[in-house]
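mind reviewing this stuff:

——
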Amino acid sequence: MFLTHLECTACGLRHDWSRLQNLCTVCSKPLFAVYDLAALRELDCLKHSSLREREKSLWRYRELLPLAKDAEAISLGEGGTPLLRAKAFADDVDLWIKDESLNPTQSFKARGMSVAVSMAKFLGAKKLAVPSAGNAGGALAAYAARAGLEAHIFMPRDTPPANIIECRELAAHVTLIDGLITDCGAEITRRKEKEGWFDLSTLKEPYRIEGKKTLGYEIAEQLDWKLPDVILYPTGGGTGLIGMWKAFDEMEKLGWIDPPKDGFAVANNKRPRMFSVQASGCAPIVRAFEAGEKFAAEFPNAHTVASGLRVPKAIGDFLMLQILRESKGGAIAVDDDEMIRAVREVGSKEGLFVAPEGAACFAALRKLRAAGKIDIGERVVIFNTGSGIKYLDCFERGS
């Protein structure tokens, strides 16, 4: 096992990885898992040629994940999703779609929950709790059931019915709240100590992001270790965006991609420009980025049909904003009706029934091209984070 410790992303304080941890005990900011990358760099089993022979799942990168070698991975076959060339939607850029709808529970949330539930069980948790506006709840319900642990899921009452049904049928304890995901999180915080729950909220424990970072490793491997020029990522809590940037940092230290040279900024090496895509009705990161703020204030009256983007306040806001600026990327908002139109266009041209969150990135691509922020011929990767099948009520209303 190459995990050495946990480190606060704000104050740098070290924490012990061998017991259940949530936020930094001093400043209440997210913790990152830190590995002995120098030792990992010497392993023959982590050479590119060796990786190709491994299982097609995120656990192919096990040495770069926190779980001990002899511990049980709670897995349903997550990761290893296709990276598809999209020629019909846009012919002026080299467009690719990372289709996360083919994960267990039909979304990218399976990645984070596989690793987080594996570590929670390994470290002795018995009851797990999470606030969710949709797919994270379904993922926790599935992996907790697989692990033989209790799942307690708090969801806004207007969560898509498919997500609520999924959680209940997977034997999770579901509580519906009149409010937003932030209200659900506050209820967990109020009750978790008395109820004996371990909180698996986005970035409030250190291992969901470790599962999400494998997105970065996979696209690098799928593109023959040459990262794209641009990544468009639908952003709610932002774990995937932050996780990929962490993966790129680890890959540089492993010698898998080129580091910055001669003091030039990150944008001058092989890292992509990162763009956060949000809904116009809930765009705290867009607003903070445009205002030059370090943190994002809570977005008032948050609303959007893309339930995964309905996160009015993210605990990792400062990390997302830092990444967007370091990468010379940006943040852009898309209206709900643009998302629904994009779902239908992607479906008719590429044969994929994407979630509204993923569709938002296709609409954003057009806006960014028109604004000259993405050039002709650049390689662009869009993340479709889930399946449109879970959002049928959105399309019934919009038909």
In short: The chain has a mean pLDDT of 94. Residues 83-107+208-398 form a domain with the Rossmann fold fold (CATH 3.40.50.1100). The CA atoms of residues 8 and 24 lie 6 Å apart.
